């Protein structure tokens, strides 16, 4: 993760910050990579998230070390995704991908000094963008108002029956009927 610029949502930044505090206490070897990720990142507003930005819960397609493409969902914890489909951000690859844009590559530097190149090929699903699109569609429906779907002619009665008027002139029973 060297020489790359990252964009994190406020939520993603807070998750990494909390992870850093916990992992420091345990002397976890991923701490230097977490520190670099936070130092090389810029926090952006949730409404400013581009559709090709990898955030938590994004479905990403990536290559590691020039190998075959893999599709995974970036998750906070292993248990929050079906087996084999999630990539926790507490792993080297997951942490490296978080905050990258499609087409961007970075080096994940392991504790033994080995550097693994990771290329983010595509963001197949971006939750913040999808949420914004759903809100825009709902606002459009509200703006348009109600839409008349069917209008029966005035002389048409269900099942062929004719409507009857309950009361006509002069047949008001008065207050005693109540």
From TrEMBL:
Q: Which InterPro entries match?
A: GreA/GreB_C_sf
Residues annotated as region Disordered? Answer: 153-178
Going by the entry's taxonomy, the superkingdom of the source organism is recorded as: Bacteria
Q: Which Gene3D superfamilies match?
A: Transcription elongation factor, GreA/GreB, C-terminal domain
BP-aspect Gene Ontology terms: regulation of DNA-templated transcription elongation
Protein keywords? Kinase, Transferase
What is the name of the protein in this document? Answer: Nucleoside-diphosphate kinase
Question: What are the GO MF terms of this UniProt record?
Answer: DNA binding; kinase activity
């Amino acid at each position: 993760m060297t020489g790359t610029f990252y964009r994190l949502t406020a939520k993603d930044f807070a998750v990494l910050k909390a992870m850093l505090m916990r992992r420091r206490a345990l002397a976890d070897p991923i701490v230097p990579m977490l520190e670099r990720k936070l130092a090389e990142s810029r926090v952006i507003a949730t409404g400013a998230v581009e559709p090709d930005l990898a955030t938590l819960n994004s479905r990403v397609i990536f290559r590691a070390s020039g190998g075959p493409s893999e599709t995974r969902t970036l998750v906070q914890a292993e248990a929050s995704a079906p087996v084999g489909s999630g990539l926790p951000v507490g792993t080297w690859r997951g942490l490296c991908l978080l905050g990258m844009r499609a087409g961007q590559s970075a080096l994940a530097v392991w504790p033994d000094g080995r550097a693994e190149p990771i290329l983010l090929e595509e963001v197949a699903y971006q939750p913040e963008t999808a949420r914004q699109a759903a809100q825009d569609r709902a606002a459009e429906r509200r703006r348009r108002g109600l839409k008349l779907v069917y209008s029966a002619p005035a002389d048409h009665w269900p099942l062929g029956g004719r409507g009857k008027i309950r009361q006509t002139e002069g047949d008001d029973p008065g207050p005693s009927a109540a």
